[in-house]
Specification:
This protein is an alpha+beta fold and 808 residues long. It folds into 6 domains: 58 residues, 2-Layer Sandwich (Phenylalanyl-tRNA Synthetase, Chain B, domain 1), CATH 3.30.56; 116 residues, OB fold (Dihydrolipoamide Acetyltransferase, E2P) (Beta Barrel), CATH 2.40.50.140; 203 residues, Phenylalanyl-tRNA Synthetase, Chain B, domain 3 (3-Layer(bba) Sandwich), CATH 3.50.40; 59 residues, Phenylalanyl-tRNA Synthetase, Chain B, domain 1, CATH 3.30.56; 204 residues, 2-Layer Sandwich (BirA Bifunctional Protein, domain 2), CATH 3.30.930; 88 residues, Ferrodoxin-fold anticodon-binding domain (Alpha-Beta Plaits), CATH 3.30.70. It is built from 21 helices and 42 strands. The protein has a 7-stranded mixed sheet, sandwiched between helices. Strands 3, 4, 5, 6, 7 and 10 form a 6-stranded antiparallel sheet that branches. A hairpin with an 8-residue loop joins β40 and β41. Keywords: Aminoacyl-tRNA synthetase, ATP-binding, Cytoplasm, Ligase, Magnesium, Metal-binding, Nucleotide-binding, Protein biosynthesis, RNA-binding, tRNA-binding. Its EC number is 6.1.1.20. Pfam families: B3_4, B5, FDX-ACB, tRNA_bind, tRNA_synthFbeta. Tetramer of two alpha and two beta subunits.
């Protein structure tokens, strides 16, 4: 909503308040002012000039040499190329030394050898947008009308109100009462405690009755609660006076003709959309408001033929549509220069119906924007009379006696009971009932005291006031939010902290990021092929109703395919060293058609590929491999206190390398997978050698032990023993480690694998595994005999369990 400061002064006295102060006050009270536009755009020294004589430029067919009186001793010569310039016109002249919008400075110049001492200006050159310029001035200079009381030398910026400032209001959907000038005046009246002056709307009617020429029929009262038609004859359609055009342009509306401009003017003034029909173009003396027929055609004012449906409301002449109700009029019944009698429509249409009609036609207008939010039904007639008054005054129209009205409005009075104690408690104020009553008076909300409450009557213009809390807000903003005292909260306070699940998520991110993996985020949607490929057969893909594409048509069932996509994208962009992870959700169901919500399962997945370590100076280079990724995952479990509960078991799974894949077990239950990506999948995705893992983290929430236990530095020395064992190739090192730890008892503190050998000098099907064992007693120094005894038990356990032999 654009609000002209100059225009606003006609409804409330604000001469002593600057636009900047108004903007600050309104913004603090809840209606944000986005911007203050200066209409002159930096223009200076623009005066009225009278073109005394004109002759064609001797060396240019499209230029004229004009002698212009600008109120100085002698006329000045100005070369002008506008096609509509002529002698006897009053025009806007930028004198030598003047500045135009865009910081254009006017200087003396010679155009094709002729001296030019200034510039005759168009409206565009004065800073008015081209879309707002009246059509007859769109391609030429601006000419003051014959009835304009101007003289050579008068200041154009003052005459055309271009020194005005325009406030741009950013209204929320509930404040439709400020979508017009009078509504903004009411708002300022409440803020500054000043009276509102309503415009003149008293019409002089002739004896001839309107109902003798017109009849109105409304099919559905809910669709059209109120419809009124006024008939005005002997109208002389022509340009609007300058003051009316200037106000419309300041509000962002292009002037057309006096009749049409009046309807737009009243729309901005009262917030009530009006429409003027050419009475004779209607073809009948009948207005019939009904639902459109399916596939009924109709041409709107913009010249576009539109196909209607029964969801839309139309105004007809009893036979065919002449307007799309609440949105736009029809081309065949528009007011033209030849119009002499008009039918002025003022109505109320169902907001939802107007919104639907506007959306179906992809056609939004100033009228539909106001009807959608609901108009002030109590002032529809007043707005119509105001328009009739202006048409009578500006176009010489004669208003026929009476009006033709169909009224189905529900006349009910809305009241809200406001309890002072509850309001003060909610706002933190200590206002008295007389202070609150004064605020209601400033808002022009009638009220009376009933017992200990204040009963407030809500006028039709304030549709946003529905419950008592709405009145609390009105009191707070008019009293001033800055005037509400600050108080500390009362009650028990608790220290905020993260939940156990948040702590686990944070720990996962911290460990993986510290290991060099980058956090990525991918879509929760995927393709049906990927959704079924990377999940167990019992699960079914969950299809969404309106997918953006087939590639994003189902909910994902695994994080891995998106990591493969990200890796492929990076490889294509020559980023071949890739270390990434994602923490997100997958969505699982066993149903073909959903009857209950799917299970949302949180998971973490990671992928590494390329060179992990590259120290060029030391000549050290390390490629990613299975054990590097396994070490990262083990570090994750260690940070959660789960090292002793997690084991890795070799397995085979589709899309993973058959010999380099393991199931991750937590207390014997599988929670994820880790391994090398299958070479066939690497070729399919165009990946280098890659390794990936995926974990379900719900079990980690339940099992994680984040308590940190500190252990002192050992006081007593340790004793080390190394053993090299020959065992069957199929025996996992992890199983050997478990046997060693169990047999070593409390004295065995650490077991480390330091060698693995297969090949020459070993039997077929055998491998050599070497471990370093560390023994220590926490309270004394161990003897060699004690260590040897315990070490013998370890060797015996390995022999008994896996038939291990010492390598000679």
């Amino acid at each position: 909503m654009l609000v002209s400061y100059e225009w606003l002064q006609h409804y409330i006295e604000i001469d002593d308040i600057t636009p900047e102060e108004i903007a600050e006050k309104m913004t603090r009270s809840g209606i944000e002012i986005d911007f203050i536009h200066n209409r002159n755009n930096g223009a200076t020294n623009i005066v009225v000039g009278y073109v005394k004589a004109i002759e064609q430029h001797p060396d240019a067919d499209k230029l004229n040499v004009c002698q212009v009186d600008i109120g100085e001793e002698e006329p000045v010569q100005i070369v002008c190329g506008a096609p509509n310039v002529d002698a006897g016109q009053y025009v806007a002249v930028a004198k030598v030394g003047a500045r135009l919008p865009g910081n254009v400075k006017i200087k003396k110049a010679k155009l094709r050898g002729q001296l030019s001492q200034g510039m005759i200006c168009s409206l565009q050159e004065l800073g008015i947008e081209g879309k707002l310029v009246p059509k007859r001035y769109a391609e030429g200079i601006y000419v003051f009308s014959e009835d304009a009381a101007v003289n050579p030398g008068d200041d154009v910026l003052t005459i055309m109100a271009l020194n005005d400032q325009v406030l741009e209001l950013d209204l929320t959907a509930n404040r439709s009462d400020c979508m017009h000038m009078i509504g903004v005046a009411y708002e300022l009246a409440a803020l500054y405690d000043r009276p509102v002056k309503l415009p003149k709307a008293k019409v002089r009617e002739i004896k001839e009755m309107a109902e003798e020429h017109m009849s109105v029929q409304v099919d559905h009262a809910k669709d059209t609660p109120f419809y009124q038609a006024l008939v005005i004859k002997n109208v002389q359609v022509g340009p609007s006076p300058a003051w009316l055009q200037n106000r419309l342009m300041a509000a962002g509306i292009r002037p057309i003709s006096n009749v049409v401009d009046v309807t737009n003017y009243v729309l901005l003034e009262y917030g009530q959309p009006l429409h003027a029909f050419d009475f004779h173009a209607l073809g009948t003396g009948e207005i019939h408001v009904r639902r459109a027929y399916n596939d009924e055609s109709f041409t709107t004012l913009d010249g576009i033929e539109r196909t209607l449906s029964e969801e839309q409301l139309v105004i007809t002449n009893g036979k065919e549509p002449v307007a799309l109700a609440g949105v736009m009029g029809g081309l065949d019944s528009e007011v033209t220069d030849s119009t002499t009698t008009i039918v002025l429509e003022a109505a109320s249409f169902a907001p939802a119906l107007v919104r639907k009609s506007s959306k179906l036609m992809n056609l939004r207008s100033d009228a539909s924007a106001r009807f959608e939010k609901g108009v002030n039904e109590s002032r529809i007639g007043e707005a119509a009379r105001r328009a009739a008054y202006l048409i009578q005054d500006l176009a010489g129209g004669q208003v026929l006696n009476g009006d033709v009205t169909v009224d189905h409005r529900l006349k009910k009075e809305t009241t809200i009971s406001l309890n002072l104690e509850q309001m003060n408690h909610r706002l933190g104020t200590g206002l008295t009932i007389s202070e609150v009553a004064n605020i209601m008076g400033r808002l022009q909300l009638p009220c009376e005291k009933v017992d200990h409450d204040l009963v407030v009557t809500i006028p039709e213009r304030r549709k946003d006031l529905v419950i008592k809390q709405d009145l609390y807000e009105e009191v707070a903003r008019i009293h001033g939010y800055d005037n509400i005292p600050s108080t500390l909260p009362i009650g028990t306070t608790t220290q905020g902290k993260r939940s156990p699940k948040q702590l686990v998520r944070s720990q996962i991110r911290s460990v993986l990021s510290a290991a060099g993996l980058a956090d990525v985020i991918s879509y929760s949607l995927t393709s049906p092929a990927k959704a079924t490929r990377f999940v167990e057969d019992v699960y079914r893909p969950i299809r969404i109703d309106k997918p953006m594409s087939e590639e994003r048509s189902v909910m994902r069932t695994s994080l891995l395919p998106h990591l493969y996509d990200i890796a492929a994208h990076n490889r294509n962009h020559r980023n071949q060293d890739l270390f990434i992870y994602e923490l997100g959700s997958v969505f699982l169901t066993t149903e073909e058609r959903l009857t209950v919500l799917p299970r949302e399962e949180e998971r973490v997945a990671g992928l590494i590929s390329g060179t992990y370590l590259n120290h060029m100076w030391q000549g050290e280079k390390k490629q990613s491999d299975f054990f590097l990724l396994k070490g990262m995952v083990e570090q994750l479990f260690a940070s959660l206190g789960l090292t002793a509960d997690v084991t890795f078991k070799q397995t085979e799974q589709a899309d993973f390398h058959p010999g380099r894949t393991a199931t991750i077990l937590l207390k014997g239950e599988p929670i994820g997978i880790i391994g090398q990506v299958h070479p066939a999948l690497e070729d399919e995705w165009h990946l280098d050698e890659s390794y990936a893992f995926e974990l379900t983290i719900e079990p980690l929430f339940n099992q994680a032990n984040q308590m940190v236990l500190y252990q002192g530095v050992p006081k007593f020395p340790s004793i080390g023993r190394d053993i090299a064992l020959v065992v069957d190739q199929h025996i996992p090192v992890a199983d050997l480690t478990t046997v060693i730890e169990e047999a070593g008892g409390s004295l065995l503190k650490q077991v480390n694998l330091f060698d693995l050998y297969e090949g020459e000098h070993l039997e077929d099907g055998k491998k050599s595994v070497a471990f370093s064992l560390t023994y220590r007693h926490n309270e004394r120094t161990l003897t060699d005999e004690e260590v040897q005894e315990q070490h013998e038990q370890v060797l015996q356990a390995l022999t008994d369990t896996y038939q291990a032999t010492l390598r000679s």
